[in-house]
Amino acid sequence: MSHKYVAFDIETAKILPENISDLNSHRPLGISCAAIWCTDKSEAELFYSETSNGSPAPKMSEQDLTSLIKCLQQKVASGYTIITHNGLGFDFDILAEESGNFSACRNLALQHVDMMFHFFCGKGFPISLNAAAEAIGLSKPANINGAVAPRLWKEKEYQEVLEYVAQDCRLTLDIAETSEQNERISWITQRGKQSYFKLPSGWLTVEQASELPLPDTSWMDNPWPRSKFTNWLE
Asked: Less Cβ crowding at N or C end of the chain, within 10 Å?
């Protein structure tokens, strides 16, 4: 392995309407919990705030989010590379808003590897974590996803949500490491076929991926611009 990775993922706190088209119109979303999982560790580190009676709080406090940011900074300083799937366009954006620490989150976001953003910069469209997981024989749980997690957290199903956010980190690590070894990331297309995107130089950081030439998206009706993911950095 050329990198020592630490996967990072958050779960939001606000319960949203089903099938929403614009997540940003419902912000702020709050963060119920987060997880990090290091390449060389057997389990995730979990983060959430507590109420006065010691139970998990509805959402994380600014103080606890600041501690999470410091933990990520310490991991980077000790040689880890943060890796996410859509961390640029979601996790770090939300973390910056909720913590109030834009500068630190911006720096972490630019220097980390966002697998989805790297793929998007190369192909012009995104893929889901599950599409990449299925291509290597893995999958996310069928009974929970990012939309369901806020409701489960409110219903005090804390352990189920914590296990879910940890598993997303584990999936991210598995996909990152397998893809790096194979020099390509594979995914299952919407037609059910397996395809791949070459990674000749391994995974690129957000800053590096942003320098890739724009792909041909002339075949698409409404291609997304890269600014969809990077606007909050300005």
From this structure: C
The C-alpha torsion from 38 through 41 and 43 to 46, rounded to 10°, is -40
Whether 172 maps to a domain, the answer reads yes
Q: In the numeric block, which tokens belong to residue 103?
A: 């500068």
- The amino acid occupying position 47 is F
**Rounded to whole angstroms, how far apart are CA atoms 31 and 11?**
6
CA distance 52 to 134: 42
Count the domains in the chain.
1
CB pairs under 8 A, 24+ apart, for 223-227?
A: 223/124, 223/125, 224/120, 224/124, 224/125, 224/126, 226/120, 226/121
Look up the domain containing 14 and give its range.
4-212
Determine whether 29 is exposed, middle or buried from the number of CB atoms within 10 Å of its CB (0-12, 13-18, 19+): buried
Whole-model pTM over 0.70: yes
Domain assignment present for residue 168? The answer is yes
pLDDT (tens digit per residue) in 70-121: 999 999 999 999 999 999 999 999 999 999 999 999 999 999 999 999 999 9
